[in-house]
Design a protein that fits this description.
One of its GO terms (cellular component) is membrane. This protein is mainly α. The chain is built from four helices and no strands.
């Protein structure tokens, strides 16, 4: 139960940032290095979930990966 709640909260924590970036196109205060490392790390967790057959880990990180990737792409696009 705790793991499920933690997974939901950490996954959804990217949603407000995605909304703000898409609305304002302002990415000055976002660290490119941090989001680059985050996206790579999330991708690796997603891959680990796939290899281990852990669907909860895979799905949570797949959603998080997509959200973080939107922010990373916006950071590169709206420099």
């Amino acid at each position: 139960m705790i793991g499920t709640i933690a997974g939901i909260l950490t996954t959804l924590s990217f949603v407000p940032q995605v909304i703000k970036v898409l609305q304002t196109k302002d990415t000055k205060a976002i660290s490119l290095g941090m989001y680059l490392m985050s996206v790579i790390g999330i991708f690796l967790w997603m891959t680990h979930g796939y290899i281990m057959g852990d669907m909860a880990l895979l799905i949570a990180n797949l959603i998080t990966f997509c959200l973080a990737l939107v922010i990373l792409v916006a950071k590169l696009k709206y420099k």
